[in-house]
């Protein structure tokens, strides 16, 4: 429900993460950030 008491319809969310060797050090940081962002929406 939003602040006006109306139902918020569900949405599909797709997250694509580049797991190539050059991004290896960023993958865990991005994964944690995505998890936190999704949790804050719920």
UniProtKB/TrEMBL annotation:
Q: Which InterPro entries match?
A: vWFA_dom_sf
- SUPFAM superfamilies (alphabetical): vWA-like
Q: Which domain of life is it from?
A: Bacteria
Q: Which named protein is this?
A: VWFA domain-containing protein
Upper lineage: Bacteria, Bacillati, Cyanobacteriota, Cyanophyceae, Coleofasciculales
